[in-house]
Amino acid sequence: MSNIRLREEICCLYVMLCYFQYSPRSFRLLEELEKGEKGKGPESCSYGLADGDDITMTNWNGTILGPPHSNHENRIYSVAITCGPNYPDVPPTIKFISKINLPCVDDVTGEVKASSFHTLRDWKRSFTMENLLLDLRKEMATPTNKKLKQPAEGTTF
Amino acid sequence: MSTYEEEHGLNDSDETGNHRNTERRELRNEFRELFQAYGSNNSRNGNNDNVILLQMLSELIPEDLQQEWFEQIDSKNRKSCSKEFIDSLPRIKANSIKDKNAECAICFCKFLEDKYPLVAELPHCGHRFDLECISVWLSKSDTCPLCRDSVLSHKTDIDVSKTEMEEDWGMYG
Amino acid sequence: MASLPKRIIKETERLISDPVPGITAEPHDDNLRYFNVTVEGPTQSPYENGIFKLELYLPDDYPMEAPKVRFLTKIYHPNIDRLGRICLDVLKTNWSPALQIRTVLLSIQALLASPNPNDPLANDVAEDWIKNEEAAKAKAREWTQLYAKKVDDN
User: Which residues cross the membrane (chain A) (predicted)?
Assistant: First the structure.
């Protein structure tokens, strides 16, 4: 019994040590913001703070350029991203503003369903909002998803 | 005494939070070596082969990693000291360190805490640091941490005879 | 796994045993590289009588790399932007590993005493500062009253 306790405690200590040197939420988000602001990221997606005065850096806007050779080609999709107080230990929530037909997107709310989108489901601390946007773009381009019929351009959830 | 590398886990590769960073660093170093080996014009292979190889390599590396890596090269070219320069810094013997409490301004450890300290002295300003610590810093910068003078601007050639003299003096002094 | 470098432990101990007047810095219990900081506004500056909260993080490569610091209290200053980011040379290109948490925080306090609108981070504030320094200082005083007032925050 005491052995189990000890093992548990060692595990806790180990987890704590792993988190030890992780960049806190705010500095991690500032890094992501700087990358987004400087346009250092890829051209196929962009992201920035929804409110430049919000020091908690919770709400973000993003865009995804529809991948070529798909029904999404030349479309620009707007998304809203929310990084909660425990980001990046837990994934952000992400919601499409522009209407889109995609299996992992709730067809009423536009919310990306964590259970059916691998990047949210298997979230790791090292993932960023940029990863998330790029992976969604890849999702649009899969052989089955790229042929899905899409709502009229410019409509919103 | 633990080294900068040890304390910062630069040699660690165990399954911990730092793992990904270490992995990244290693990957980056490997790629850099590849680029250096095959990317130079002096290499024995034909130039065309190199270009193709570089293109193939660059497709393998994620964009952000490439960028980070080029930035690193850029900053390296801008201001840092060569390995040769760092290796040639004069060393100070323990018994020529007069002040018992003298400490390295980088790691805050007393030089004489170590029985066999490896202490280097910057040639132009005479500031002393643990060789280990100053080596890491000068691989990123060309300034003295204490006076901020460029360590390369004053004396580029180190007077070896003087160093040896100082060492002798240390031994018999 | 890298443990906490001795230097960070020493710095933390010295910050507690020999604190800087007008400045506090305490590490978080669960992350000893992450500090809660308060800085008192310098006397005879528009920030006088204000207590400003900041957060400071020592990255993996510290002290080879500068600490990351940010204001959490809203402040009207040409070199501090709306998210609390600070434009200060020692935090960027002029970092030296011989600097410390202590010296960085003193530099920040000095920046409050002497704003530098010619090297701005918050462009609109810097413009105000150059156009009408007295009005800008009045606004800075007003913000200090509004957001940085000394309160008991147990």
Answer: none
Asked which of B51, B76, B101 is the last residue of a domain, the reply is B76
Residue C114 CB burial class (10 angstroms; 0-12, 13-18, ≥19): exposed
Residue type for B78, please?
R
Q: Select from A14, A20, A49, A51 the residue whose CB has the most chain C CBs within 10 Å, as the one to mutate to test that interface.
A: A20
Q: How far apart are CA C25 and CA C12, in angstroms?
A: 8
Determine, for residues C1 and B9 on separate chains, whether the beta-carbon distance falls below 8 Å: yes
ipTM for the predicted complex comes to: 0.87
Instruction: Using CB atoms, pick whichever of A20, A41, A42 lies closest to residue B17.
Output: A20
What 3-state DSSP class applies to A5? helix
For A14, name the nearest residue in chain B, comparing CA atoms only: B16
A40 in contact with B, Cβ within 8 Å = yes
- Taking only the tens of pLDDT, chain B with its 173 residues reads 555 666 665 544 444 445 556 666 666 666 556 555 554 444 444 455 556 666 666 666 666 666 666 666 555 455 788 888 888 899 988 888 888 889 999 999 999 988 888 999 998 889 999 999 999 999 989 899 999 988 887 654 544 544 444 444 444 43
In tens, the pLDDT along C25-75 reads 999 988 899 999 999 999 999 999 999 999 999 998 999 999 999 999 999
CA distance C137 to C133: 6
Catalytic one of C87, C108, C111, C125: C87
- Asked if C109 is an active-site residue, the reply is no
Could you list the residue range(s) of the whole structural domain that residue A58 is in? 24-141
DSSP-derived letter for residue C66 is P
Provide the 8-state DSSP code for C19: P
User: Taking CB atoms and an 8 Å cutoff, what residues of chain B touch A11?
Assistant: none
Does the beta-carbon distance from B16 to A19 stay under 8 Å? no
Residue spans per domain, chain C: 6-148
B39 domain residue, yes or no: yes
* Same domain, yes or no: B37 and B57: yes
Q: Is B172 inside a domain boundary?
A: no
Count of the separate structural domains present in chain A: 1
Q: Kindly report the CATH class assigned to C6-148.
A: alpha beta
Predicted pLDDT of residue A145:
94
